[in-house]
Write a structure and sequence with these properties.
Elements: H1 2-11, H2 18-38, E1 45-46, E2 49-50, H3 53-72, H4 74-79, H5 83-102, H6 106-115, H7 117-127, H8 133-162, H9 177-194, H10 203-210, H11 213-223, H12 225-234, H13 239-244, H14 246-264, H15 270-290, H16 294-325, H17 336-339, H18 341-354, H19 361-376, H20 381-403, H21 419-434
Antiparallel strand pairs: 1-2
Helix pairs in contact: 1-2, 1-5, 2-3, 3-5, 3-11, 3-16, 3-21, 5-6, 5-7, 6-8, 7-8, 8-9, 8-10, 9-12, 10-15, 11-16, 14-15, 14-20, 15-16, 15-19, 15-20, 16-18, 16-19, 16-21, 18-20, 18-21
Length: 444
Amino acid sequence: MLKFVLMILMMTFSFNSWLSVQLSLFLASSIFGLLSLSHFGVFQYGYGLGLDWVGYVLIFLSMWIMALVLGASESVNKLGAHKSLFLIVNLGLLLSLVMTFSCLDYLLFYICFESSLIPTMILILGWGYQPERLQAGVYLLFYTLFASLPLLISFLSLYSSGGSLVMELSMVPNLSRSLVMTWYLCSVLAFIVKLPVYLVHLWLPKAHVEAPVAGSMILAGVLLKLGGYGLVRVCPLFSGVSLGLSWVWVSLGLVGGVMVSLVCMRQGDMKALIAYSSVAHMGMVLCGLMVYSWWGLVGAVVVMVGHGLCSSGLFCLANMSYERLGSRSLWVNKGLLNFMPTLALWWFALSAGNMAAPPTLNLLGEVNLIVSIISWSGVSGVMVALLSFLSAAYTLYLFSLTQHGKYFSSVFSCCCGEVREYLVLMLHWLPLNALILVGYLLVP
C-alpha cells in the first residue's frame, strides 16, 4: 500500500505539468486495479496500512474520480488560475483519502478522515464561483467539526479503556447500557453528518452549489463515501447497541430519503437538485449498513461506487451547461436538445444511471439494498417502493426540463462539446455500466 502513497507524493513534484499529473493518476489507478486483482495478498498489510475489499474498491474509485476531475477542470488549466496550487490541493486530498481507506489504526483513521476537510475547503473558497462560497465553507466547517470532536473523545476513551486502537483488536468495556449508547452516538455522529443523513444534510447542497466542478465531483464521487466507510469500521464495536437502534436509522434513512426526493421535485437549480439526490441515495446506503446483513453491506458498497460515478458525471454535465449559458437555473437551461444534441445522449445515459435503470451498477446495488431492507422488515417495503418511484420521478424531471422546452432567444450558437469532455463523460459511463458484468469482483 505504501508504494501507492509514495507514488501520489511523487506526483506533487510534477505539479507544473497538468497532463503528466493526469496521466500519472490514470496509470496509478490502472496499476492498482491490476495488481490488486491478481496479487491481492502481496501488499495487504504493512506499516500500519492495510487493505480489504471495501478499502480497495473505494481507493480505486478515489484515484479514478481524481483523474477525471483534472479532465473536467481544463478551464483552470487554460486560464492559469493558480493551476499549480490546484494540482497540489487535489493531490493532497487524494493522499488523505487513500490513507483513510487503508489505515488500520483508529487514531490514524480519524486524522486522515478529518484532514480531507482542509483541501475541500481550499477548493470551495479558492475556486468557487460566487461570494456565497464563504457561507458554504462555514457550513461545511462547522457541521463537520461539531460532529468530529465527540468522535475523537470516543477514540481516546477506547484507548484508555482497552489499551489499543488497532482495528479488529479494540473492544468496548462492559458498561451500563446508557453509557454505551452515549458512547455509540458520539462515535457515529461524525459519519452520519459526513454521509450525510437527512436532518444534518444542509451543508451538502450549499457546498455543491458554490464549489467548482472539481469540488462537486470529489464531494459526490468520494467524500460522501467516507461516512459509509466509517460506519463499516466503527459500528462493529457497538454491535449490541447498534442492533437495537437499527429501526431508528432505517426509519430516518427511508423517511428522510422520501422527504429529500420531494424537495428535489421543487428545485430550480441543477446542482442543488443533483446534490439533494445524493442525500436520498445515501439514505438507502445507511439502511443497508444498519440492518447488519451481508446483502446490505454489499449493496451499500455497490451503490456507493455506482453513485460516485453517476453523480460525478452529472455534475460534470451541469458544469458544461453552466460554462456555455452562464446559469445553473433549470428555467434558463431549457431546450438543450436543440443546440447541444450530442450532450443530450449523455444526459440520458447518466440520468438512467441515477434512477438505477439497467444495466447500470446502481441497479445491482439497489436490488441488494431492497432485498436486505425488506428482509429486515416487510413494512419498510412501502417506503422503499415510494423512494424508488420518487428517484425516477425527480431524475426524469431533471432530464425533461433541461432537454425539452423553448430555449432563450439570446442563445444563437453554442459549441456542442469538445473531445475532452466526451472522453470524461465516457470514462464515467463505461465503468458504471461495465462493472455490473463483473460484480462478483466486488465480493471477496
